[in-house]
Each structure stands twice: as C-alpha cells, then as structure tokens.
C-alpha cells in the first residue's frame, strides 16, 4: 500500500527540528518561515512541551470522554483567561475542520435555522459543512454543494446585510485574516458592522481563528484588534504545537444539550497536556508580544523590497505579493538559501513562522530574499537584450 497522493510534495524529508529550524536526513538546517502550515506556535520540539507530553504519556495518553478528565477543565480555564473569553465554554476536537463543523452545527441547533453565510475566497476545512462554506470549487465534491451555503464578497457590508436581514441564516463565518485566500484582512469596520448586524438579526457570528489566531497577529485573536466579540470562535493548528487538536469556543448564550456533540479522540489527556504546555510557553516567553514586534519589523522591511507589489497581514501572518510568478523564487529560497516559505496563489509568498521567530531570523530571511530578487531582476534585464 502507498499513501493516497493528494499533496504536491517537496522532495525533502524532515528528520528533526528545533526552534525555528528543521533538519533533513543529511542534517542540513532550513530556516522555517512556514511553521508546518502555521502549526508550530512555540517553536519546534520545545523542551517544555516535549517534557510535559512525555510525562503525560507515561501516566495516561488517552481515555474515553465518558470519564472525567481534569486536564480538560484546567485547559478550559487557562485558555479562557488567556484568550479573553473566561465566561465562554470550549468543545475539544482534533482538527480545524472539525472545530468549524461543530461551530456551524451549534449555530444551527441554537437558532433552528439552516443557512450559512460565508465569504468569497474563504477556506474553512475539508469536512462536510466546513468545505461547503469554503469558496474553492475544486475541493467541494458534488455532495458538498448545498444551496444552504451562500457566499458574499469579503469586506463588503451591503450585500451581507441584505442576506442576514432575511433572518434565515444561523451563522456568518469569517476568517479575520484569510489565509489560503491570500492573507487578506477583514477591516475592523467590516467586523464591527457584521457584529452589529448579527446581534440585530439573531445570527451567530463564527470567527475562524484557526490560522490567524493563537497569538499570531500580536493579540490572542486577530478579531480582537477590531474590539469585537464573537459567538463562536474556532482554533486548531498552534494550540498543541503539532499534536492534532481543534477547539470550538462557545458563548454562554448557547446552552449545552447532552449528546448533541461528541468525539472519541477530542480533548485526550496527552493533547490537553501539550496544549497546557503551549500556553505556559506563550506566556513565559511573551510570544504574543514577540509576534507583534518581529511581524512589524518584517512588514516594514518587506515593503522596501523592489519587485514586491504589496505586503499584507499582521504580526507573523504575512503575505508578500510579487509582480511575477513566485515559483522559481520559492524554489531558490528553499534549495539555495535553505528557507521554507508557504504560498497563496501564484504571486504571493505566505509567511507563517513560529511565534518565537526573532529579528535575527527575520534579517537572515530578508538578506536572502533581497539577494534572490536582485538576481532575478538582473536575469530579466539580460534576457531583454
Ligand atoms: C482558516 C482555516 N480554517 C480551517 C482550516 C482547516 O484546518 P484542518 O486542516 O486542521 O482541518 C484551515 C487549515 O489550513 C484554515 O487555515
């Protein structure tokens, strides 16, 4: 048997990692500005997370959700305080898609409504309702195409208002910064207006913070820059620094009903121990402030690079759009400069480094990027003659 080949892969096998670096089999180091797709929040193989996880595995890694798990309670309390939603509840799952699936279901159970309003260019995951709310035609199977899911232009309030005023929608779901869609920020005024319309029309506001949350933008949640609160917030990726975990954070106005949601693996002892250790590190090493400061430095310096048409994002979630196709540039960054980056479309580099990324790391990256951009420009000039 072989893995089902659905990913385009780079031919580098990562064997180990530490901090902001990953290493291949030949022990070649690569600076990681991709963070395993925004998953590595506190740095690879962080000793505190490793230690707490191993200790927990030696005690118990998993038991059913049919018994009390104190770690779930401890994590809920710590997370509630850390993220600024101490009165909300949390439902644990195993991935971002599941976190969104549960948020959408809760919104529908709570309101009794069927329709969902999602944004143009949105990405919310690949399970049933999550992919129906995802604006990428090619990843929606025919069975996921549903008239209950309607798309409205991102950052455009009038059509959203018109839809929600029908009072047919259980939820509107928004990424405060679209990731897969190309690092586009929802403007604070858009989020504030959406909040007001949701309150007026009894629609649940779901904010998908799976990629942009957990400290990445310099606040715990990206939507907190707009000074609003959501009814449901979804997180995953960085929550357990690479162990599979998702969570749906739920307003007290949504009451729990026994048996309505469920999961076998969600909130296991070992992932909760890892997630608690992640919160320890985020706080002890002040990684949210670090993300803000290093992100600001990168945003400023990237804007000065010739050939860059736009730099978007906030904190350590950055999109660098170029005038030309970036495929060759990314390959050069990876194979010559030994730097991992992500991408969104053909023209945008997507940077999602661990939150412990330093100014020194940023300078190393900028130096390589400037050098390659200049080299490509020279090559272009020569080809003119
Ligand atoms: C904004 C957003 N929502 C949801 C998901 C889906 O998360 P997962 O792949 O863990 O299911 C992703 C993954 O990239 C994402 O970026």
UniProtKB/TrEMBL annotation:
UniProt key word Transferase: yes
Family matches, as PROSITE patterns: AA_TRANSFER_CLASS_3
Transmembrane segments: none
Cofactors, names only: pyridoxal 5'-phosphate
Keyword Transferase: yes
Alphabetized UniProt keyword annotations: Aminotransferase, Pyridoxal phosphate, Transferase
EC code(s) of this entry: 2.6.1.11, 2.6.1.17
MF terms (GO), sorted A to Z: N2-acetyl-L-ornithine:2-oxoglutarate 5-aminotransferase activity; succinyldiaminopimelate transaminase activity
Family: Belongs to the class-III pyridoxal-phosphate-dependent aminotransferase family.
Name listed for the protein in its UniProt record: Acetylornithine/N-succinyldiaminopimelate aminotransferase
Organismal lineage: Bacteria, Pseudomonadati, Bacteroidota, Sphingobacteriia, Sphingobacteriales
């Amino acid at each position: 048997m072989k893995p089902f080949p659905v990913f385009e892969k780079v031919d580098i096998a990562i064997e180990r990692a530490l901090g902001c670096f990953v290493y291949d089999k030949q022990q070649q180091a690569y600076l990681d500005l991709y963070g395993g797709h925004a998953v590595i929040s506190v740095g690879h193989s962080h000793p505190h997370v490793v230690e707490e996880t191993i200790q927990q595995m030696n005690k118990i890694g998993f038991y059913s959700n049919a018994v009390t798990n104190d770690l779930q309670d401890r994590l809920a309390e710590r997370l509630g305080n850390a993220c600024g939603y101490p009165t909300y509840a949390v439902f644990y799952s195993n991935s971002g898609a599941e976190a969104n699936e549960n948020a959408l279901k809760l919104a529908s159970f709570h309101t009794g409504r069927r329709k969902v309003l999602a944004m143009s260019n949105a990405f919310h995951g690949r399970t049933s309702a999550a992919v129906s709310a995802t604006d990428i035609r090619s990843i929606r199977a025919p069975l996921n195409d549903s008239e209950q899911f309607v798309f409205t232009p991102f950052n455009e309030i009038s059509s959203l208002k018109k839809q929600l005023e029908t009072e047919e929608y259980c939820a509107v779901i928004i990424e405060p910064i679209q990731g897969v869609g190309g690092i586009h920020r929802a403007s604070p005024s858009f989020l504030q207006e959406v909040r007001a319309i949701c309150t007026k029309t009894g629609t649940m506001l779901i904010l998908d913070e799976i990629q942009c949350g957990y400290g990445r933008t310099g606040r715990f949640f990206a939507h907190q820059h707009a000074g609003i609160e959501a009814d449901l917030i979804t997180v995953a990726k960085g929550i357990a620094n690479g162990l599979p975990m998702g969570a749906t954070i739920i307003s007290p106005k949504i009451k729990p009903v026994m048996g309505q949601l469920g999961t076998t693996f969600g909130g296991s002892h070992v992932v909760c121990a890892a997630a608690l250790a992640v919160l320890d590190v985020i706080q002890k090493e002040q990684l949210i402030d670090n993300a803000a400061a290093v992100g600001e430095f990168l945003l400023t310096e990237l804007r000065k690079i010739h050939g860059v048409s736009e730099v978007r994002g906030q904190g350590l979630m950055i999109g660098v759009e170029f005038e030309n196709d970036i495929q060759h540039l990314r390959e050069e960054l990876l194979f010559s400069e030994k730097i991992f980056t992500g991408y969104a479309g053909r023209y945008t580099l997507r940077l999602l480094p661990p939150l412990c990324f330093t100014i020194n790391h940023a300078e190393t990256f900028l130096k390589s990027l400037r050098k390659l951009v200049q080299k490509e420009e020279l090559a272009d000039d020569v080809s003119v003659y």
